[in-house]
Specification:
Distance between the termini: 44 Å
Helix content: 40-55%
CATH class: Alpha Beta
Order of helices and strands: EHEHEHEHEHEHHEHH
Low-confidence stretches: none
Number of strands: 7
Strand content: 15-25%
CATH topology: Rossmann fold
Number of domains: 1
Length: 198
Amino acid sequence: MTAICVFCGSSMGYNDVYRKAALETALFFAEKNIELVYGGGDVGLMKILADTLLEKGSRVTGVIPGNLVDRGVVHHNLSRLIVVDSMADRKHKMAELSDGFVALPGGFGTLDELAEILTYNQLRISDKPLGILNVNNYFDGLLTFFDRAVEDGFVRKEHRDNLIVSENIGELLEKMASYEPVSMEKWITDIKTESNHR
């Protein structure tokens, strides 16, 4: 994987462990010659990632909607900056440019991006791996929700199991390299059968 898209906070978070995780992720990318694709911001954990990689001479591509450029949160010193029309266009372009995806702690935007790739993978719109860097157990509540969704029959176990989670960026990317997409045929047949036996 030569280009990884990172979803993460436009805020720093209150605990320094999140800043440290962003820094460690950037340093790992630099060491492994991985290009960063991200949301193009000059704020929060996004800024730590971009600045650290640029300082190391690594390639950083930002994708940002024009309205956020107008609000002054764009990073102007990237290797490449792509300005798009909307948040939807941003997600589509980042997905197109990347070989895989990593979610670091963040807010609603990070959750939106994470959920979109989960859905892409479920529907085989994308066959690129998605990993969660579970810093400070930040994503535990979300993972519990996914487990409940499996338990109550709204998410297939094979899709839940295909979500890659680790507390260590090196281990996470190693696991992502072994990602295998889930076939659609069985679960489509299952949901059709369920729907006909109410």
